[in-house]
Write a structure and sequence with these properties.
With about 325 residues, this protein is an alpha+beta fold. Helix content is about 20%, strand content about 30%. Strands 1, 2, 3, 4, 7, 10, 11, 12 and 13 form a nine-stranded mixed β-sheet that branches. The longest helix is centred in the middle third of the chain and has 11 residues. It is globular. The protein starts with 7 loop residues before the first helix and ends in a 6-residue tail after the last strand.
Length: about 325
């Protein structure tokens, strides 16, 4: 088993400089950071890439509603196996809420009710309650959400006229910061973990202040190390240009310790065995197995006795 292989950029170069039909599609594997435009679904954005990536599997890690813009991470080829890992990464959002208003969807896409008697909170009052919504908190997802309730999505129940209240669930909110407040507009930056609904944060924050709120704008600024500044509008791409933005799978695992295994251990790992790790890692910790070119070969989880449990295998048959 050869442990070395050329970096993914070499395969991409061959696709871009030769007849793409002559290059095996399975060589194309990577991650795109898209800047999703407003007014389309996340699937619509993926479909824009699918036109050029025919025959390749594509998937996105973390849905953005049509109202929202910003970072949408799209995995291509074998990198789709990393979607669950990317979904676990922390997110950063910039959101605008309109106070003194409510809607069934908790945003401006629903029918808005203006509460004329609502008392505008002061900036000091808003900042005083922010600590109550940071850390590990219990949050009730919106009625219109993809959360499953008795086998069906929340939005499916709501659209048929029988809305169901989802059960509160724990989420992590690392930081809340007021960027601008000009009543009724409240603009905030939110750093949070997976599964956090920004609409719900605005709704609950307003209720704590004795008023109501709907979200009017949302931009995802970052997913882990995938940032808005490095993202590309899918509407600007074409059959060749999309490959220029394809990043190697290792970028999804840069937050993990990196391991290089000897040939026997790597062979065993890629065949489902649990080799021992020579590094001192904590049981339960995830790590990235890489080759000498820094290509990502696998994601593992450290077990007792320094055993490495394979979670994701990205290696090609050449390995």
């Amino acid at each position: 088993m050869a442990l070395a292989r050329q970096p993914i950029r070499d395969a991409i170069h061959r696709v871009m400089t030769t007849d793409s039909t002559a290059v095996p599609k399975q060589e194309i594997c990577g991650i795109l950071a898209l800047n999703k435009p407003k007014g389309i679904t996340s699937r619509d954005a993926v479909n824009m890439i699918q036109r050029w990536a025919t025959g390749l599997r594509l998937g996105h890690a973390g849905t953005l509603d049509p109202l929202a813009t910003g970072v949408l991470v799209v995995c291509v080829g074998r990198a789709t196996r990393l979607i669950s890992l990317i979904q676990e990464l922390p997110k950063v959002y910039r959101a605008t809420f309109l106070l003194g208003r409510s809607s069934p969807t908790d945003d401006v896409d629903g029918e808005i009710t203006i509460h004329e008697g609502a008392v505008p909170p002061t900036l000091q009052q808003i900042e005083t309650v922010l600590p109550e919504f940071t850390g590990r908190i219990l949050q009730r997802p919106p009625v219109y959400s993809a959360v499953k309730i008795r086998g069906r999505r929340g939005y499916e129940w709501a659209r048929q006229g029988t809305p169901q209240l989802p059960q509160p669930r724990p989420v992590d909110v690392y930081e809340l910061k007021v960027l601008r407040y000009e009543y009724p507009e409240l603009e905030m930056e939110i750093r949070c973990g997976s599964g956090t609904y920004v609409r719900s944060l605005g709704r609950d924050l307003a209720e704590n202040l004795g008023t109501r709120a709907v979200m009017s704008e949302l931009t995802r600024l970052a997913v882990g190390r995938f940032t808005l500044e490095e993202s590309v509008d899918p509407r600007t791409l074409d059959e060749r240009r999309w490959l220029e933005y394809l990043r190697p799978p290792i970028v999804a695992a840069q937050h993990l310790p990196q391991l290089r295994l000897d040939e026997a251990s790597l062979r065993g790992l890629l065949h489902g065995q649990w080799p021992r790790c020579q590094e001192e890692l904590v049981p339960g910790q995830k790590a990235a197995v890489v080759d000498q070119f820094n290509n990502l070969l696998a994601i593992v989880e450290v077990q007792k006795g320094s055993r490495l449990k394979p979670l994701v295998n990205l290696a090609t048959p050449a390995h």
